[in-house]
Structures are given as structure tokens and as C-alpha cells.
Amino acid sequence: MNYYIKKDQVSESIEYFKNAGFDTDDMLFLFLMAKHMGVSASYPVTFLNSALTSEQKKEELNSLWLLGGLFDSGEMCSSKGVMFPTAFRKLAFYQPGTEFNKIPGRMKDTVEKKNINVTIFNDVDSKLTLRSNYKDLIDDKYLKGQKISLSKLAAWIFRFSSFEFDSIPNEKQFSRVLDKAIKKYFKITKNDFLWLFEDDLSNCRLIPDADSITGREVREQFDFDATKMPEVNVISAPEDAQVSIYDKDTVAHYLALNGDNPSDSDIYDILMNKEQIVLTGVPGVGKSRYTKNLTESGKFVDSLTIQFHANYSYEDFIGAEVLKSEVGGTYVTTKQGVFLKYIEKVKSDPNKSNKYLLVIDELNRGNIAEIFGESILALDRNYEASLSKEYEDVGTLSIPRNLYIVATMNTSDRNIAFLDLAIRRRFAFVPLLPNYDFLSEEVVFQDFDLGNILKQINQRIIDTLKDPELILGQSYFIPKADESGKYIWEANDFKNQFNFVLLPTLREYSFNNASAIGSIVGENLSDGIQDLDDFMASFSAEFGE
Questions:
Q1: pTM of the model
Q2: Where do the structural domains in the chain lie, given as residue ranges?
Q3: Can you say whether the dihedral through the CA atoms of 502, 503, 507, 510 is positive or negative?
Q4: Which of 36, 53, 246, 379 stands the most exposed, by the fewest C-beta atoms within 10 Å?
Q5: What is the tens place of the pLDDT at every residue in 306-323?
Q6: pLDDT, tens digit, for every residue of 165-191?
Q7: CATH homologous superfamily, domain 264-431
């Protein structure tokens, strides 16, 4: 069954943008459109009509419709039917005299500043890139210290969109789908997302409805004068309609409890393609869970896990000279390190279709260039590295194709070595983010939504410490599973986890700045409350609904 955003919430989003205080210049929403079309500071995209394919023109039309169309999928607009939310306050139209189906051809004129002042783009040879200071320009003209409500923007963007569910979704499920849909649509980086949006969809839930708002109902919320009234007609030909449909498979994918992270199968596919990957992220995002799932997947006949640290060496990893005592005296010989020994084990298997897995935990804790030595070159898999000496009669090192390498790296670690560029080039880097979905759906602590609470804490960390790499992963709020496999917090256990695991981490991140910790978790909770009743009262006051 198809569901839509509740009409009242679409109306609320219109009122939100009417009161947002934006100028009528449409720089902000042209930026969002450009991001959707793939424009970045380094990657150029053309909006010149003659250079666009029919599919690109169709995509531009759909993007403009989603961002500003005043007519629904059963209507056709001949004129004045597109208005970005930045113009809601003053009803200044984006290209008011342009027929909707001609707008892609006018994007070039727009960027050349014949119509509006668009300072965030560079225009070279009919191709657009974002200026390096686009954030400053948007901050100065639009945001002015504020952020855009993600829930209100999603309600507007998807006002006419349908989402197909197998069963009636609750508000939490529907909001999760909308959250993932809008992030995927705009193709915005994590840093840009944190800069631009107030991530409030976990607080301001979007409500599913069997009926969608109509174009007429949208237009009725504006006071058009006679000369600017949209010229809209009902259509009968479906091929002429603008549509935005999210089918059942897409919705099911968005409903999966992976948060914004790849699935286990995605990780496996990336590994098979690249042969070696690094899972990156702050502590607690599930890097170890992914590696554990890989080792236990049954897809590898054997696995080995090693951990790098400050004292880990080439001798431990590749090989070393050692003293050996026998009857008659002591002499110097060599010993293979764990990596070289494991390579020789894999090579000894006559069945080359058998897959082996090496897991390197805390990759950036050691001196990577020193540990790998000449074996860095062998990561290319078509290269045989000559070792400085023979280790147990092995003088060269090559990595077999059926040996796959997965490494983990904590991005918040202040004591890490510089990651060698040679390593960066030879690994695929897979960033992992906190999984708020899992906490919200699978972890029970009375009536609290722990996914939403962790999201609040992380946003406060970013606002207070000014470093998105110091946020917390979901494992800080995941208890041990009970006998039935459910994750349920007892109140006293949660209090201890908060006081003796979460707070010490924040003290380390903030260099024991009491004021900063108070800003993140609230002053009452910042020192650690030992009395259970007092703790629960303070926690509820700070993070309750």
C-alpha cells in the first residue's frame, strides 16, 4: 500500500519556510539541486540545455519539481509553476515567466547571473563547479548561524511522493524511510549535512497517510496576485506527469537497521572487489561487529586477527633475526612474522578457490610504513617484494589473490600515527557511522528512544567540541543480550554504563572540561549521579520526551 506525508505536515513545512526569513535569491536551493545533479568543488556538471541527454533533462525537470513544483502528478503547468521555498515569504518566483518544460534550458542563463545572483558557482566552458568558499557564501546570505529543519524540508520535498510499504508503517518507521530518502537524494557529504541541517527527524516524526496533498491545496496556501497565478491544468496522459514513487524494495532497504552504513553483504562485496579494505569510524560504531561477522560468515576457510599497537614492529609482522640455543652453543637464525607465516599457509593450500581472511585491528595505532616495510608494494597483488633477508628460507613476499585483508581504524584516536599515502592508495576505505536506527528499534530502556538520545548527545558534542570525529557510536548504549537475544537495559546497569563508560570518554575528549561535559549531557548528569532515583529523574528531565 502507498503512503504519503500527512497533509497538515506539508502545510506546516510551507509555513516554516514562509517564516524562515530567506531572501528571494534562490542560491540555497540551486545549491541543493546542484548537489543532487552531482556538482561539487572538483567535479563539473553542465546545465547547458544542448549538452544534456534526454534522461538528464528529465532528471532536471523532476528535481525542479521536487524542489519547487506547485502542481501535483495529475496536473500540467504551462507557466509560473515553480517556486523554491526561499521565495515563499515574498512570493518571488523562480523563472516566473518560463514554461516548466523549458526550465533546464534556462539553468545556464541563471548561472550566468542573467536572472538571479548565483555566486556559489564557477562557470568555465559551460560547466559548473562549486566555489571553494560556497559554505561561507551560504552562511552569510542565508543561514546566519541557523540550520534548516530536515523534517520540514523532507515534508516539502516529498509532499507529492508515495512510499510503498508491505504493512501500515508507524511514525518511527516512516520517518526513518524519509530520513534516508532525503539524504540519498541530495548526495550531501557528512560534513555538509552537519553544517546545513538540523537533524530533527527523530524528534519531529513525519506521519504516514493514505492520501496525499494536492497541487490545488498547496497553491491555496499562497496569496498570488492575478499576474502571477500559476497556470495549471488537469492532465489525463500519465506519461506527461511528474512522479516520485518509492517502491517496496527501496522502502524495505531504507527500513533495514543498518543506519547509514553498508550491509554485511555490501562489505563483503567491496572486499571481494578491492581485496583489502579499512573500516573507519569513531569508537562504538560496529567495526568489530563487521569483522566478526566476516570471520563467522562461513565464506572463509580460515581467518587470523592481529592488533597493531605502538610497539608492534616489522619483526612481529614480517620476520626477525633471533637467537637459538642448542647443544654446543647459541647462534643467530630467522623467524617468520605472523603476516609472512600466514601468507605461506595460504599458499600451501592447493585449492586456490578457498578464501582466507586477515583482520588487522587498530591499523593506525602502529607505525604502518615501518611494520609493512617492503610488503606495502605487495598489496598490489601483482607484485613480488624482495625481503631484506630470508626468513626461514623465504626471501620474497607476494600476497595470494585468495587472501583478503580487512583493517579497522578509529578516526577519533588522538594518538595515531600518520596514515601512509601508500596504504591509502591500496585500500578501500569504508566509513561507518553511528547506527541510531538499531538503538531506536532494538534496544529497550523503559520508554526512552536511545537512538534519538544518542543523536542529541552527538549533535551536542559537535556543537560544543567542534569536531565530528569525537562523536560516540551506538555500542555505548547497547547492553549484553539476554537469553532470548533481546537488548534490554536494567536501570542500574544503564546508570553505571553512563557514569563509568560514557562520561569518562567525554572527559577524555574534552580534556576534562566540566563546562563542555555539562553542555553535552546536562549539568546535573555531568558529575555522575550514583543514587538511582536521582539519576533517573535527571536523565528523564534532560532526555525525556
A1: 0.72
A2: 2-255, 264-431, 436-543
A3: positive
A4: 53
A5: 999 889 999 999 888 777
A6: 999 999 989 998 998 899 888 887 777
A7: P-loop containing nucleotide triphosphate hydrolases (3.40.50.300)
